[in-house]
Amino acid sequence: MPRERTRDAFVAAFASLGYTVCVGEEREAGYERIALFADGDGRPTHAARQLLNGRWSSKLGKAEDIEHGLHDLEGALYGSVVLILKRLVPPLTEGTAKEEGGQVEKEVVGRKRCQEPFKIGKGS
Questions:
Q1: Is residue 59 part of a domain?
Q2: Residues 54 and 78 in one domain
Q3: Of the residues 12, 51, 66, 104, which has the fewest C-beta atoms closer than 10 A?
């Protein structure tokens, strides 16, 4: 996998985690979505994760995570959304049930970057 700041390299990196390129930014039950932002030269600048409520979450530097509409961050700093990727929600060993629109879905309590679930509580 190439270690460069290109759209193709980011697609390959996310593909290694089970993501595929998709069309549309609407929330789809059973899937996680990532939006890739890029500058005017096509270099990726930022990624946002879709929340269960359909809005998006971003980490902006050292600040807290923020919740926003997908296109709210577009501009000179982050560029624009150039790609949406999705993957099936991985099985959870720890999570919480959340009812949304008549459906019960699981929401991750916490995960390490490598997508391995971690335990919360004694011995963590």
A1: yes
A2: yes
A3: 104
Give the span between the Cα atoms of 80 and 87, in whole angstroms.
22
**Residues ≥6 apart with Cβ < 8 Å to 5:** 43, 44
Please report the pLDDT score of residue 65 as a whole number. Answer: 92
Kindly state whether residue 14 falls inside one of the protein's structural domains: yes
35: tokens are 């939006």
For residue 84, the surrounding DSSP H or E stretch is: strand 80-88
Task: Specify the 3-state DSSP secondary structure of 71.
Answer: helix
Domain of residue 96 covers 91-124
17-66 pLDDT, tens digit each: 999 999 989 999 999 999 999 999 999 999 999 999 999 999 988 888 99
Same domain, 95 and 42: no
Task: Please say if the pLDDT value at position 116 is more than 50.
Answer: no
